[in-house]
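Good morning,

Attaching, inline, the C-alpha cells for the sequence recovery test we're adding to the shared suite. The designed sequence is right after.
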C-alpha cells in the first residue's frame, strides 16, 4: 500500500484586486489576492498592512454594489453612527464586487478623511487562494507617510527628503523620524519590498484566522528560558560570592544567544551583559529558579516546565498577560499591539503614546501635576524586560530588530497575551 501523500491545502474563491492611491507620483499601488468572503473591516486591515498605514484614522468606502445600490460605508462602526453612514462590520467584500464583466468592477476606499487618501480598488479577476490567506503579488513604491498632508503633501515631503541641501531638510527629517521611526537617510519613495509586505499580510492572516501553536514554534519562543532551566537541572548553577552567575556561564549564555550587541566591557560578567542579568533575575522573580546554598536550582515550577513545555507556555502567557499592576497591564496591551501590528515607533512617539494612554485611562500623580515622562519610561522598560526573556523574533542583534522579525510563534504568543488582557 502506497504511503499517503501530504494533505491537500483547501482553497477558497478570491478576488484579484489592483489597488492604487489616487494622485501619487510615482503611482503607489498593490495587487492583492483576498478571499471574497472577508469583511470590510478585514479588507481595511489588509490595505493598512499592504501600504504601511498605521490605522490611526477613520476609513470609508464609496461603491455601487452587485445589486446596483449606492453604498457609503464607514469604519469603525461608532464613527459611522456619527455621520449617518453604513457601519463597516457585517459588510462582506463579495457584496461590492461582481465577476469581471458582469457587475461592479471598482470602488473607492478612503483613508484619513483629513488628508483624504483615496484608493481606487479595481477588480482584475477571480482567483483561488489557500484558506486563511491574503497575498500581495505585485506593487510599486513605498507607502505614503502618515499625516503628511495627502498626495500633494507627501510629494513635497519626498522632494525635501531627497535633497540634503534643501533648507527644510533637517526639520523634515526630524519630523519623518518621529512619525515613522525610520531614518530619513534611508527614505526612498520608489522602494517596494514584496517579501516584507507578504510577511505583514501573513501575520494579519494569522490574526484573522488563528492557528494552533506548533511544538516547534513553542520551543523557539521558550528557548532562552528552557535553555537556562536545562542548565540549572541537577546540582544547579554555582554563583559567585556576590550572587552572580560564574563568568563561564555568562559566556556560555552569551555565545548561545548571540547577545553581543548589549555587552558593556568584558562579556563574562553579568553586570556587563544586561540580557543575561535580565533573564536570570526574571527566572528568580517567576520562581522558575531558586537560590539555595550558593547555587541556582530548579523550583517546582521550573521542574514542571522542563517536563511539560506546554505548561510552561501557558505559565508564561499568564505571567506576561496578567501583571499585578494596572499600569503594567496597560503597557503590556500597548507593547503587544505595537509588536503585532508591526509599528516601529520612535522613542519620542512611544513615550508620548504611553503618557497619553496613562492619562486617558485615569492615571494621575498625587499632586495633580502632569504625569512625568519617567513614569512612561519605567513601565515601558519593565514590560520590555519581561518580553526580552522570550524569543519572539527571529534571532538578530536587538538594535536591528524591526517589525519584520516577529516569528509566527511570537505572534501567536502575543495574540494569546492580548486575549488574556482583553478579559482582565
Amino acid at each position: 500500500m502506497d504511503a499517503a501523500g501530504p494533505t491537500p491545502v483547501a482553497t477558497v474563491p478570491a478576488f484579484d484586486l489592483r489597488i492604487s492611491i489616487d494622485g501619487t507620483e510615482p503611482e503607489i499601488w498593490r495587487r492583492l489576492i483576498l478571499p471574497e468572503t472577508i469583511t470590510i473591516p478585514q479588507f481595511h486591515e489588509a490595505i493598512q498592512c499592504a501600504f504601511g498605514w498605521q490605522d490611526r484614522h477613520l476609513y470609508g468606502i464609496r461603491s455601487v454594489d452587485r445589486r446596483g445600490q449606492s453604498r457609503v460605508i464607514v469604519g469603525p462602526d461608532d464613527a459611522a453612527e456619527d455621520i449617518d453612514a453604513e457601519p463597516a462590520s457585517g459588510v462582506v467584500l463579495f457584496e461590492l464586487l461582481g465577476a469581471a464583466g458582469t457587475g461592479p468592477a471598482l470602488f473607492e476606499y478612503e483613508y484619513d478623511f483629513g488628508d483624504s487618501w483615496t484608493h481606487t480598488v479595481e477588480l482584475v479577476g477571480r482567483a483561488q487562494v489557500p484558506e486563511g490567506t491574503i497575498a500581495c503579488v505585485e506593487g510599486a513604491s513605498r507607502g505614503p507617510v502618515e499625516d503628511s498632508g495627502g498626495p500633494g503633501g507627501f510629494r513635497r515631503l519626498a522632494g525635501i527628503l531627497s535633497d540634503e541641501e534643501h533648507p527644510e531638510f533637517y526639520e523634515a527629517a526630524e519630523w519623518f523620524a518621529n512619525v515613522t521611526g525610520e531614518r530619513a537617510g534611508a527614505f526612498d519613495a520608489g522602494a517596494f519590498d514584496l517579501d516584507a509586505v507578504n510577511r505583514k499580510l501573513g501575520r494579519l492572516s494569522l490574526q484573522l484566522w488563528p492557528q494552533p501553536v506548533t511544538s516547534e514554534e513553542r520551543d523557539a519562543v521558550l528557548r532562552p528560558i528552557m535553555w537556562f532551566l536545562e542548565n540549572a537541572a541537577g546540582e544547579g548553577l554555582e554563583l559567585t560570592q556576590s550572587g552572580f552567575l560564574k563568568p563561564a556561564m555568562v559566556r556560555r549564555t552569551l555565545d548561545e544567544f548571540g547577545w553581543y550587541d548589549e555587552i558593556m566591557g568584558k562579556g563574562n560578567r553579568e553586570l556587563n551583559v544586561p540580557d543575561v542579568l535580565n533573564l536570570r533575575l526574571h527566572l528568580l522573580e517567576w520562581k522558575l529558579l531558586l537560590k539555595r546554598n550558593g547555587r541556582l536550582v530548579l523550583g517546582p515550577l521550573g521542574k514542571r516546565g522542563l517536563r511539560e513545555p506546554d505548561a510552561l507556555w501557558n505559565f508564561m502567557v499568564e505571567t506576561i498577560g496578567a501583571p499585578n499592576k494596572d499600569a503594567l497591564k496597560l503597557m503590556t496591551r500597548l507593547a503587544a499591539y505595537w509588536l503585532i501590528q508591526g509599528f516601529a515607533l520612535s522613542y519620542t512617539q512611544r513615550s508620548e503614546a504611553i503618557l497619553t494612554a496613562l492619562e486617558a485611562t485615569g492615571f494621575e500623580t498625587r499632586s495633580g501635576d502632569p504625569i512625568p515622562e519617567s513614569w512612561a519610561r519605567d513601565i515601558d522598560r519593565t514590560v520590555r524586560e519581561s518580553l526580552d526573556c522570550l524569543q519572539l523574533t527571529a534571532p538578530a542583534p536587538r538594535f536591528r530588530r524591526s517589525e519584520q522579525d516577529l516569528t509566527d510563534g511570537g505572534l501567536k504568543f502575543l495574540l494569546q497575551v492580548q486575549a488574556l488582557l482583553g478579559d482582565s
